[in-house]
Amino acid sequence: MIQKKLRDFPPDELEKIAIDAVGEQGVTDFEVKFNEAAQSGTSAQFALQMAEGVQKVRFVVRE
Description:
Layout: H1 2-7, H2 11-22, H3 27-40, H4 43-52
Helix pairs in contact: 2-3
C-alpha cells in the first residue's frame, strides 16, 4: 500500500517538495531517490525511519 501511494504521488507536488527540501539544484537527485524508495520501500522501512527520529540540532543565537 505504501509503495502504491508513493508511485501514484503527483509529479508536480513532488517537485514542490523537492525544491523546499533540497533546493533547485538537488531536485533531480531527490526525485531519483524518491522513485527508488517507491519501488522498493516497505512498511518496515517506513516504520524504522519514523522510529529513528531526527538528529539533535542545536541553534545558538548570538546577541
